[in-house]
């Protein structure tokens, strides 16, 4: 979801490149979960095989929450603890 917050609508292959250490199978599962929760929209273009993912308004509304979680993590969790 963070990739979509930062980059806007994206194709699966572009999302996969941006998500480290995540298999395609797991990424597909997560995108389906996010779609089922109304956070992500999956759009298939009729004139091509292009499938694009984008955030819904509900998903985009989480931007402040994501930023706050990153700020907290940067402050309280060091790389050595992971």
UniProtKB/TrEMBL annotation:
- Keyword Transcription regulation belongs to the record: yes
Q: Which InterPro entries match?
A: HTH_HxlR (IPR002577), WH-like_DNA-bd_sf (IPR036388), WH_DNA-bd_sf (IPR036390)
Instruction: Note the Pfam families from the entry.
Output: HxlR
The keyword DNA-binding belongs to this UniProt entry's keyword annotation = yes
In this chain the HTH hxlR-type domain maps to: 1-81
> What PROSITE patterns does its record include?
HTH_HXLR
Q: Which GO terms describe its molecular function?
A: DNA binding
The record's keywords, sorted A to Z, are:
DNA-binding, Transcription, Transcription regulation
Q: What is this protein called?
A: HTH hxlR-type domain-containing protein
Its source organism is Lacticaseibacillus saniviri JCM 17471 = DSM 24301
Organism classification, top ranks? Answer: Bacteria, Bacillati, Bacillota, Bacilli, Lactobacillales
């Amino acid at each position: 979801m963070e990739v979509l917050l930062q980059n806007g609508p994206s194709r699966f292959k572009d999302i996969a490149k941006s998500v480290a250490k995540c298999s395609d199978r797991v990424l597909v599962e997560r995108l389906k979960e996010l779609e089922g929760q109304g956070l992500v929209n999956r759009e298939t273009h009729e004139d091509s095989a292009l499938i694009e993912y984008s955030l819904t308004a509900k998903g985009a509304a989480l931007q402040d929450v994501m930023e706050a979680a990153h700020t907290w993590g940067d402050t309280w969790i060091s790389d050595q603890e992971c």
